[in-house]
Amino acid sequence: LGAEAARRVRWAAQAFHNRARDVRSLLLVQDAEEAENILRDFGGSAAAASSELVPSLVASLASAAARSGPGAPGFEVRGTLHVPPDFTVRSADSLDSARSRCITLTNEEKAKEMQQLQIMIRDFVKEVLHGVLLDIVLEDGCLLTCRCSMDNRLTTVSLQVREIVRHIRLVDIQEICSGKELQNMNTTTPLDDLCVTFAMMNDQCVTFKFKTVAAREHFSTCMKVLRLACE
Question: Is the pLDDT of residue 37 over 60?
């Protein structure tokens, strides 16, 4: 990982952490509707997808897999993403519980939280630079396993199925949505609480599905930080 990319990621992690802390504070004093809007603006607004999002990129990968038929995957298998055992899910799903209790962090707790976030992002980057296996959701609800990786500058996500590779520039991703953030998303892809969707500028989308909520939010949080680093 280059020095410039590392610097951008450190800055983005700090900015993301500050935003998250601000949102948690605001949730304590705002009414329910306004708090929902604040959290949605912070995490990625599904309402941004006013036109129907179509997973054409995913369809092309599925077609490649169908043409190739059974056999070797065409890439080195590195395994799935590792979720830190102490990872805390903080998303729209925890809105009610966050609003119902007072959240105050000492400076020491804030510093520890920031350090944990930076370590998590560092470990995530190491994994995606090598490539990991993720499940993407097709329009019929079936799952297609692909190799997900990023370039050394952390500006592009690559999805590979056999010999076919599709690239997604982070700057082309408008929103990264998960959990309750997906409720108002207009897409032909079937979604559920274990999904994370990239909504892109050209009315395209890619949806990933995970086995647990923690895995979902780990991926979503890390990708939001990396996307912020490209702004």
Answer: no
CA 56, CA 52: separation in Å to the nearest integer?
Answer: 12
What's the Cα-to-Cα distance from 163 to each of 109, 131, 149, 150, rounded to whole Å?
Answer: 47, 15, 14, 17
Query: Mapping DSSP to helix (H, G, I), strand (E, B) and coil, where does residue 206 land?
Result: strand
Q: Which of 218, 169, 179 is CA-nearest to residue 96?
A: 179
Q: What is the DSSP string of 16-80?
A: HHHHHHHHHHHTTTS-HHHHHHHHHHHH--GGG--SPBB-HHHHHHHHHHHHH-SS--SS----P
- What does the pLDDT look like over 64-103, one tens digit per residue? 667 655 544 555 555 778 888 776 655 444 434 444 444 5
Encoded tokens for 207: 């949806």
Proportion of the chain above pLDDT 90, given as a percent: 29
Q: What is the pTM of this model?
A: 0.74
Q: Which phi and psi (to 5°) does residue 52 adopt?
A: -70, 130
* SS3 per residue for 100-167: HCCCCCCHHHHHHHHHHHHHHHHHHHHHHHHCEEEEEECCCCCEEEEEEEECCCCCEEEEEECCEEEE
CB 147 within 8 A of CB 139: no
Q: Cβ distance 212 to 87 under 8 Å?
A: no
Between strands 156-161 and 205-209, the pairing is: unpaired
If we measure between CA atoms, which residue out of 215, 55, 20 comes closest to residue 134? 215
pLDDT above 70 covers a percentage of the chain that reads 67
8 A C-beta contact, residue 75 and residue 61: no
